């Protein structure tokens, strides 16, 4: 490891979390799809731990932010919950308590010398909007989201200079409509494709409102956050594997990346969807909005690569349509795994992403908005001073930074690195199974203790 890696002045070093994963539901007037799912099916969540308390940020944000500052970070991402900020979804009118809370949080972030980065949607669709309109299947919901975003910009863009419309929108499509890990756990490829389109439209319409109202006048910028999982074919000399990997990339990466940056959908994807008769419903006017309203910067969440091989078994055409008809996942022998999360560890992909953005996406300004390692049972690494010695996390981060640094040296326009996460937080259905933080959370007492990685990152940043 090259300990002398230099990153430019002003490089953002930080950590990310989201409203639903850290605040707790205290004093929240509406429920999102996870709040509701936990209410009706608590056993779907690890150890039946739900979203009510999480890491108690609603009550402890002052101490929490001071701790993040104390480990040397200069920036912090969280999200504003639609179900907390908004009183009336149809008008976008804000709730007084919601305004007060987010005002306090944003002021406190800034007071601690941290640059705030604020996400507007982190998997937290209001469940009422699913029940009434079908959630992201509906273009009315798209417009309601834009109203919420406009309210948030109006209230906070004097202080928030980096906004992001969505976090990992493809995960919403996968979780809600394909692979059943987000409520309502539907399996319906056609609806999935409409939701994919509608969320792209919501992001573009939000950018339009941001520009029209000149919220960027004091330097605020708007972007989006995508989880990029580069698809590597099993055998680069086998054209079928290569083609399958290209298609997987079009579905899982380019379906949001291209509209966000280039204003259009990948042709390969559109052609396949047309052929299969599952293409989304769109209008000329909407496509024009997508064309004209691109992001100003990109956040990339990177955890693991995708390995792909050509389909091995014939697809049963009587079954509902799924994108998986075009590829199989490939378990590469000898791949390095994080056994707790079941994710492959492959740091070089971060370099490949950097070069892809440089060469194929106009070298747009971008940053790593999430990267990290979830580990179960970290208590077994507690030393005599009560500190978790998470050397594996330090190694993981170092290795990824090395490849990121190489990408930057070769001209990729990356302005920051955020780890997931600062303080151990709640991870959807996995709840508190795997811990990711620089700071450990004792769930019973809510006591927070800096891990070895937290001490390390401080020195590294220096
Ligand atoms: C990401 C997601 C985060 C967090 C993380 C680790 O995909 O954006 O919300 O849950 O995974 O589980």
UniProtKB/TrEMBL annotation:
- UniProt key word rRNA processing: no
Q: Which GO terms describe its cellular component?
A: cytosol
Q: Is-annotated flag, keyword Hydrolase?
A: yes
InterPro entries xrefs = GH (IPR017853), Glyco_hydro_1 (IPR001360)
Tell me the keywords, alphabetical order. Glycosidase, Hydrolase
Task: Give one GO biological process term.
Answer: carbohydrate catabolic process
> Would you say which domain of life the source belongs to?
Bacteria
Q: Name one GO molecular function term.
A: beta-glucosidase activity
PANTHER family, A to Z: 6-PHOSPHO-BETA-GLUCOSIDASE GMUD, GLYCOSYL HYDROLASE
Family from the record = Belongs to the glycosyl hydrolase 1 family.
**What is the designated name of this protein?**
Glycoside hydrolase family 1 protein
What is the source species? Clostridium sartagoforme
